[in-house]
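Design request, tokens follow.
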């Protein structure tokens, strides 16, 4: 079976997101000094960014939509999380 370009983009994007999630969970379990290293976060986050760029290039999403969603999420995090510092 041959995947369409869109199917391949969806599959690879899902795989890369899962790999980033796996790295983040290892940091949760083992701490910032984890054997996996900070470089792993950069590597996997960069892979996810690449896939987002490809999704935009293939007109599946737009950067404007992502920026709007990001802005909405930041507002929610201000209310429900401590990760936004507004000093």
């Amino acid at each position: 079976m041959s995947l369409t370009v869109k199917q391949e983009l969806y599959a690879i994007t899902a795989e890369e997101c899962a790999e980033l999630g796996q790295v983040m969970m290892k940091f949760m379990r083992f701490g910032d000094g984890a054997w996996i290293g900070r470089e792993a976060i950069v590597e996997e986050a960069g892979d996810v960014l690449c896939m987002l760029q490809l999704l935009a290039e293939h007109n599946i999403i737009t950067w404007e939509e992502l920026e709007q969603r990001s802005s909405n999420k930041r507002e929610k995090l201000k209310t429900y999380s401590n990760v936004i510092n507004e000093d």
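Comment from the thread starter after seeing the answer: thanks! Residues 5-61 form one domain.
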